[in-house]
Fold this sequence. Notes:
Layout: H1 3-6, H2 21-37, H3 41-71, H4 76-104, H5 109-116, H6 119-130, H7 136-154, E1 158-160, E2 163-165, H8 171-174, H9 179-217, H10 223-230, H11 238-251, H12 253-266, H13 295-307, H14 313-319, E3 323-326, E4 336-340, E5 345-352, H15 356-374, H16 389-402, H17 408-411, H18 415-445, H19 451-465, H20 487-491, H21 497-515, H22 517-529, H23 536-542, H24 551-564
Parallel strand pairs: 3-5
Antiparallel strand pairs: 1-2, 4-5
Helix pairs in contact: 2-3, 2-4, 3-4, 4-6, 4-7, 7-9, 11-18, 11-24, 12-18, 13-14, 15-16, 15-22, 16-21, 16-22, 18-19, 18-21, 21-22, 21-24
Amino acid sequence: MSDDQMKMPKFSEIEYKRPSVEQFRECAMSTRLKLMAARDADVVENSIMSFQREMSAFDTAFTICMIRHDLDTSDPFWNEEMDFFDENYPVISDLSAGVYAALLHSEIREELEDRFGSMIFRKTQNQRDIVSSEVLDDLADESSLENDYSQILSEADILFKGKHQTLSTMTPYLESTDREVRRKAHKAVSDYYMGQKEKFDEIYDNMVKIRTTIAKKLGFSDFVELGYKRMERYDYDPEKVKEFRDNVVKYIVPITSEIRRLQKKRLDLDNLYYYDLPCLFSNGNPKPIIPKEQYFSVGSEMFGKMFDKRPSFFQVLGEHDFMDLFSRQNKATGGYCASLLDYGIPYILMNANHTADDVATMVHESGHAYAALRSIDSSQFIECLSPTLEACEIHSTAMEYMTYPYMEMFFGENADAYRQQHMTLAILFLPYGCLVDEFQHVVYSNPDMTPEERHAAWRELEKKYQPDIDYDGDPFFEPGGAWMKKEHIFTSPFYYIDYCLAQVCALQIWSISRKNRKKAMTIYEHLCAAGGTKTLIDLVESAGLESPFSLDVMKKLAYQVCDYLDL
């Protein structure tokens, strides 16, 4: 962290002002005219950098608004501001695409590519393909539907054991060693989703239709094509992803079946039902031995040791209010890391509930934050500060493994149990992530499916990727309702396979770290510092890793994980 970042303001003290769309429009139009007329690379660079500052300011205002909205989704002011961005961000994207189109068609493009690198031109062409003035209203409608879903989730109120619970605070009950508590907790969550099923079906049906409409207007055959463009998949396609999923079915699903067989034996159960799955150990899943209020101080100490720098980046972020870790009513669900571009500072949001997942999530989002800080000078283009999203997930997922040696600080003598659980869940996740991905391919390749057909398709795919699930006749989950729990399906289409690709890359770093931690740290630093200057395959290979699509790497990792878990 630089001296400037050490002197940063507190998040609570940062002033928010709604940005002017007209001011942005004027800057965009002026910049475009300058680029069209420019015959000198210095003139182009100066014009682009001026426009970059305008883009950064707009995006920073949006990020401040998003975070403050997510901290309290009931606040009418931030709800209104989010509506403003929902309506106007597509306009900003279209104006930006117009500016960069002039860059694409510059008479001195070859000279500019030598100066700026090729990645900004690839990103520019991609942006041109996915945004046009014809779909601006549709994009605003899509964003509004996504917010509708997230708003409903944030307001979830489940009465359990005489207390009002959020979906996040239900987690300890879902993992309880008391089977009856587990069963009732899962029933309560099932009942909640059953109560929202009609709304969620309607929202998703509208999402599928509007996304398909956008794709057709932009000249794509379906939203699958557009979805891959949105995700900036420059060096692989749906067929390559299908090969990856097939490899997971062949090499990973058998491991998950063995994990479930041993779990059933450990728990001494005749039948392993869906409500038993979160409880991996008979004496309970490992929990942090420290109260969640100490996560920040212990995390600060851990990262200080890991990077041999004090105060650690994590400590500096926390001391300046750039994180909010605990679950509460009307706070957005899930967790994320978002950067305020004007300040060069990331913000971490999560929902701690005093389970092992708290630590994994905190470390995961800290990986994003560390990468954001390391790559701050990697490019003069804000579009190239971060890599494509699957590569971003390598930063965060690898951090989960690189912190394994420090887990005693959170779990004490149960640290080994945590590491075993974490690795187990990582392997169990791979088929689930592929399930989520294939489901979306099916849905968007068949946009006229009824809600009932979508539920049936999910249930069939569950049998392929998670053959050991037994819903014990649950009226919501048995007919195929579990996909509604996955927010990414609604708000981030085709994102979820990124976690799987990143997992395979991160597991390679874990494997290297077992023999040579210094080498693993060097690889990790390389990945973070590169920012968005390379595509996924170029990035991982430049760091000395194998492509996640490699059949050999999947086989090797499957063997090593089995050895680690004594399977």
